[in-house]
Specification:
Helix content is 24%, strand content 35%. The protein has 5 helices and 8 strands, in the order βαββααββαββαβ.
């Protein structure tokens, strides 16, 4: 099955909602998909205090299955999301977020770029020596046309400043890629 990356963006006004029952419904809904997931977790504001949505990378048969997954997801049904971005995701690391040891004093970031680069050529750097900092790395493709749409990566680093070095080594200097969406992110799943 192909991998899909789903970025769900919170609806206005839901950041302050704390609903343990809805959290449990969400986890119960996603539990059966856990074995097919590469990564999952909440996105946060820059202060890392408010929930701004979520990221899920999982195997599903096709785009219509992805849309059904979204439609039936409890946060979506409760109106917590205003929008969802969907891409096909070509994994370049061959592992999941659970295979990467968490570094306690590091912050986790999720980065999306809408331009393509030679990710495969740069992946070897991460397989030798610094793989513990990169959680996810993959190319993005349009879910309908399969056309290249950019790169996604998640990294755990001491600061946003350190992220610049990771981006240089992984996707190249700023002139070589399009706009970046740098998202504060946390590893997800049951707590």
């Amino acid at each position: 099955m192909p991998h899909f990356l789903i970025r769900s963006i919170a609806a206005a006004g839901v950041a302050d909602v704390d609903d343990p029952d809805l959290d449990e419904q969400h986890w119960s809904y996603t539990d059966p998909y856990a074995a097919t997931m590469i990564a999952r977790g909440p996105t946060l504001d820059r202060a890392r205090r408010e929930w701004t949505g979520s990221i899920h990378i999982l195997d599903l048969p096709d785009l219509s299955s992805v849309r059904r997954y979204i439609e039936n997801e409890p946060y979506h049904r409760a109106g917590a999301y205003r929008d969802h971005d969907i891409w096909r995701f070509d994994d370049h690391l061959g592992r999941t977020m659970w295979d990467t040891a968490r570094i306690a004093d590091h912050t986790r970031y999720f980065v999306l770029t809408d331009e393509n680069c030679d990710v495969e050529a740069r992946t070897e750097h991460w397989r030798s020596g610094t793989a513990d900092r990169l959680v996810v790395l993959g190319s993005l493709r349009d879910p309908s046309t399969d056309a290249p749409r950019g790169v996604a990566l998640a990294a755990q680093l001491p600061s946003r400043n350190d992220l610049e070095s990771v981006l240089q080594q992984t996707i190249g200097p700023p002139a070589s890629h399009g706009p970046l969406d740098v998202i504060d992110w946390e590893l997800g799943g049951r707590r």
